[in-house]
Specification:
The chain is mainly β and about 230 residues long. It folds into two domains: about 160 residues, Alpha-Beta Horseshoe (Leucine-rich repeat, LRR (right-handed beta-alpha superhelix)); about 60 residues, no CATH class. It is built from one helix and 13 strands, in the order H-E-E-E-E-E-E-E-E-E-E-E-E-E. Strand 1 and strand 2 form a beta hairpin. It binds 2-acetamido-2-deoxy-beta-D-glucopyranose (5 copies). The site of one 2-acetamido-2-deoxy-beta-D-glucopyranose (NAG) has 5 residues, from loops. This is LRRNT domain-containing protein.
């Protein structure tokens, strides 16, 4: 009898190590996070948990939400074992730096939010190759960084399937908001501006993004409109 009970505990324990609890309850691996399964997708929600470091997660996590914490740096290999991860939300943290190999392993990731952090896209903050492992990315949100700065095109040049980009926007007095390096995004159809200052809006503003179908500029201050409509391509 004792043996049977011990066996059950052992089996139960190994099961719990591999899966995420079925209900929206405290996760077995971290009491600050909540876990549940919905339509076969395993969710882990560690939002609003006062976290300053990113803990380890079970490899089978599909949707991971770490928003609204106090994380400043994403270190190399943080997500290396989350090879099934589809969505990652790191919005509303204090990210100032993302190390080169921080996103290694996230080859299936479709959706990434870095909204409302402190990234400035300098070499110290965000190496140009940081996003390269995200080969399946469809949706990228980097809007509302603390300092207004446009996401350099070279940082997303390997994201060939990108469809939906949310970013802060600035344009030069000539009107160009996105340079030539954006012209390879054949699937990019939706653009949403976060913090946005256009010195000039004209027929050059989106000239290198000819496949855009939807553009949200409601957060923009536009100082001048040039001759020629900005929406004619
Ligand atoms: C986070 O910290 C605040 C302020 O100290 C506290 O009120 C809150 O309960 C904490 N939340 C969690 C999930 O620990
Ligand atoms: C990934 O898995 C390996 C092997 O189990 C382990 O040594 C490593 O600490 C894990 N990394 C993270 C960030 O969890
Ligand atoms: C992160 O990995 C890159 C590439 O291997 C390396 O150059 C860099 O020094 C690492 N960063 C840290 C803080 O270890
Ligand atoms: C950008 O962020 C890095 C990392 O925090 C910092 O070292 C650098 O001074 C910042 N540069 C500017 C221009 O804000
Ligand atoms: C943009 O508008 C200017 C002024 O109307 C015009 O001279 C120029 O040819 C236009 N460029 C394109 C690519 O349509």
């Amino acid at each position: 009898m004792v043996l049977v009970i011990l066996l059950c505990i052992a089996v139960d324990h190994s099961f719990r190590c591999e899966t995420i609890d079925q209900h929206n309850t405290v996760c077995f691996f971290n009491s600050k996070c909540r876990c549940w399964t919905d339509q076969d997708l395993r969710h882990v929600d560690c939002s609003n948990a006062n976290m300053t470091d990113i803990p380890n997660f079970p490899p089978k996590t599909d949707i991971l939400n770490i928003n609204s914490n106090y994380i400043e740096v994403l270190q190399n290999n943080t997500f290396e074992n989350l090879t099934n991860l589809l969505e990652l939300d790191l919005s509303h943290n204090r990210l100032i730096r993302i190390e080169l190999n921080a996103f290694l392993g996230l080859g299936k990731l479709q959706k990434l939010s870095l909204e409302a952090n402190r990234l400035n896209y300098t070499k110290e903050s965000f190496d140009t190759a940081v996003l390269n492992p995200l080969k399946s990315l469809l949706v990228l949100n980097v809007k509302h960084q603390e300092i207004l700065n446009i996401l350099p095109g070279k940082m997303i040049r390997k994201l060939h399937y990108l469809r939906n980009l949310k970013t802060d926007l600035v344009s030069s007095t000539e009107g160009v908001a996105f340079g030539k390096e954006f012209s390879s995004f054949a699937h990019l159809t939706l653009l949403k501006a976060g913090t946005c200052k256009l010195e000039m809006g004209n027929n050059n503003t989106f000239i290198y993004l000819p496949n855009l179908e939807i553009i949200h500029l409601s957060g923009c201050t536009i100082s001048q409109f040039g001759k020629g409509c900005i929406f004619v391509t």
